[in-house]
Amino acid sequence: MFWRRLLLSFLLVINAVLVYRLIWSDTQGILAYKALKEHLVALESRVKELDEKNVAISREIRLLQSDEKYLEKIIRQRLNFVKDNEILYIFPGTKDTARTGARGNETKN
């Protein structure tokens, strides 16, 4: 009878420890699992976002390598290049003209 109670007490203590570890353990508990799952969802969304950005950049690279009209458009927009017999007017106060484009390149020569 004594051994039965001792065994039952021992098993109850072991079960209590296992339940505690199952729920509140830092590395193997349910709370840690939920935190890891939230982290996984955040990382998966970040990967999806970066994949979309990668596709867009790859598409632009392909266009720059193969499409002459797109390349000309980008050069004209970003570097303020002009064709023969064209005049480029840059007005003060417009977006990014002071830092980039023809004005920004005047002092380099």
Characterise this structure.
- By secondary structure, this protein is mainly α.
- It folds into two domains: 1-55, no CATH class; 67-109, no CATH class.
- The chain has four helices and no strands.
- The protein has helices spanning 2-24, 30-66, 68-79, 101-106.
- The protein is rod-shaped.
- The relative contact order is 0.04.
- Residues 101-109 have low confidence and may be disordered.
- Percent strand: under 5%
Order of helices and strands: HHHH
Low-confidence stretches: 101-109
Q: The biggest beta sheet, please?
A: none
Number of strands: 0
Distance between the termini: 101 Å
Q: Indicate the percent of residues in helices.
A: over 70%
Domain module tally: 2
Structural class: mainly alpha
Please sum up the structure shown.
With 109 residues, the protein is mostly helical. The chain has helices at 2-24, 30-66, 68-79, 101-106. The protein is rod-shaped.
Features:
rod-shaped; 109 residues; mainly alpha; disordered C terminus; 2 domains
Write the layout of secondary structure elements.
Elements: H1 2-24, H2 30-66, H3 68-79, H4 101-106
